[in-house]
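Feature request, filed as a ticket because there's no other form

It would be nice if the structure record came with a short human-readable summary line next to the tokens. Right now we just get the raw output. Example of a typical job, pasted below so the devs can see what we mean:
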Amino acid sequence: MLAWLEPGALAVVPCYKEIEVGISVIIPVAERDEAWKDLLPCLKSLGNKDEIILVSNNSLSDQLQNEVQRVGISSPTHWVASDIGRAKQLNTGAQRARCEFFWFLHSDSKVDESAIKRLKREIKKRTGVIHFFDLRFMNDGPPLMVANVYGTWFRSHCLRLPFGDQGYCMHRETYSSLCGFSETATFGEDHLLIWKAHQRRLKLRCVGAPIYTSARRYQSRGWLKTTTKHLVLTVWQATPQLLRLIKENIV
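Raw output as currently delivered:
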């Protein structure tokens, strides 16, 4: 089943009277990005009660129809038009979603069937938490990416700061309580969402399964330069959020 909204028609998104039990997979797609074509086969095991939503500022309707037929996806699959910007696209996809749970995926992510089954078991047991996956990198980056795997595990498990490429999944009410992703942030809208969750004392839980992402930028831009940049930006953005959290706890 395939449906889409043409550009200019976003203001008349239909309102669903009934929320369906299942997962709405929301995938923002940047201009000239075709990584989503490799992600779709990973989602083949999703059921009829789930749905897949691709959000972009250019029409994907023809390409999406061809890919859905080629892969053999049974879940309803939609293209939604949105202004460019990851936070804007994620929020637009959530507005369009009709399922009980929202699963936000980057277009260059990869998951397998066992990870999806694990996610479905976890969200049934714990509906009010933000679920995330353990991050792994594909074999398209430098050998030092093994250090990033351990660093990501420490950041997400010990500091409780998973990033968006770890595949956040949450109940629609949890998403609403956080007021969605910040569309005014120039970067790190996923990082800021997690800080809002901490400030509202929401729990985070690892699914216990891996999600894979590309490491090409570490190869092309340099491992040390890219890793250092991410660390600096994370600390710069996290510091005021941490101070705010400490202040609220004291008060």
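Something like this underneath would help us a lot:
The longest strand covers residues 204-213.
The CA atoms of residues 2 and 65 lie 7 Å apart.
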